[in-house]
């Protein structure tokens, strides 16, 4: 099993793209909107804002292109969001498109769930996204780290009026009418901005890239595997094309439910050994075993936290809106979050554009952003409850067994994947009983 230091890295870290990343020295003194974080949420927000004619500065602590630990799977919500951003064709020209996800249950039963799916390493996807924000008129300054918000006294308490940013030991202030915080699942920036309600992540996951060009039966779709040897989680194998596979395991955090843990409590995941879990994945799943044994590592294994179920953070405060995984926008159960990050980035941008057009005050903007995010909560709640499948993997046996008996059930699973349906069949004893006894 490779480690960060020992694994061969076949693909050298790409040099920063010339002309894309502006240095600290060129940072303006002020802008209309400062977007912090150039992942899917931040870049989507910056693109939509810049397209609407706002003066946008986008900053990230890393110069682009940069890697992001992810499974790289693009599910239907990501396709829809990319379409809305006018970027779907460009992304799909580089992505590996597949038309189904294979769900594998503990007893080995499997079902192919049709869907509009693709895999594209985040190094490439996020470069396309932040370049698109820049093409729309946003200025990307990177590497530049958000240190803390600038605040001024307002009629109802402090208002965020920009941020302190740092690079190479130097610090600068940038005044902005509004700040969008899209800093992902690592909570430091959230905490510095006074928006963190819970430091503990909702889960953690580990992934690496393996190349194997001579597999006897290469997977034709995304493969997701539940098994009692992968407790509270699952394993995945996502084909990137040309014999490259993103392989990983993820586990939900059993102790971080909702916002009941103190903001600064330790994350409590020290006992999770994802490397051992990945080794177990290789033992229980033949394809994972072949890849781990015979494949050539193209990157070190890397782990990262996830924040799910719209929990763990405040959504907004005067002068500042939160977007993407910093909000907890990733779905529990599946850990899919690219589409939801893009969506919430667009939502934040839309609110800011509306605020400017309608002349909203800060309190109205905060309330409208919170309403827009809260409208997503019921769906997140169902996914949160459906996480019971990770804790009781025999339920995956039941779901797969039942789906194999009924084309309608496969259509329902497909509906869950593209969000025309909810995973409500996974959340109550009554629904499991129905799976057991009904054939339709
Ligand atoms: C192992 C793993 C596998 C996953 N697999 C999938 C998958 O297959 N499909 C899927 O849809 N989702 C998947 N996810 C979830 C997905 O990665 C996230 O939901 C998504 O990246 C969230 O996007 P974001 O823009 O909110 O945050 P991010 O993509 O994390 O982007 C945040 C950006 O903010 C920057 N930043 C952070 N702090 C600062 C700071 N202080 N100053 C400046 N910049 C800062 C970071 O450098 C980063 O570029 C996976 C996650 C993990 C950990």
UniProtKB/TrEMBL annotation:
<dbReference type="InterPro" id="IPR050407">
    <property type="entry name" value="Geranylgeranyl_reductase"/>
</dbReference>
<dbReference type="Pfam" id="PF01494">
    <property type="entry name" value="FAD_binding_3"/>
</dbReference>
<dbReference type="InterPro" id="IPR002938">
    <property type="entry name" value="FAD-bd"/>
</dbReference>
<feature type="domain" description="Digeranylgeranylglycerophospholipid reductase catalytic">
    <location>
        <begin position="231"/>
        <end position="258"/>
    </location>
</feature>
<dbReference type="InterPro" id="IPR054715">
    <property type="entry name" value="GGR_cat"/>
</dbReference>
<dbReference type="InterPro" id="IPR036188">
    <property type="entry name" value="FAD/NAD-bd_sf"/>
</dbReference>
<dbReference type="GO" id="GO:0071949">
    <property type="term" value="F:FAD binding"/>
</dbReference>
<protein>
    <submittedName>
        <fullName>Geranylgeranyl reductase</fullName>
    </submittedName>
</protein>
<dbReference type="Pfam" id="PF22578">
    <property type="entry name" value="GGR_cat"/>
</dbReference>
<feature type="domain" description="FAD-binding">
    <location>
        <begin position="31"/>
        <end position="195"/>
    </location>
</feature>
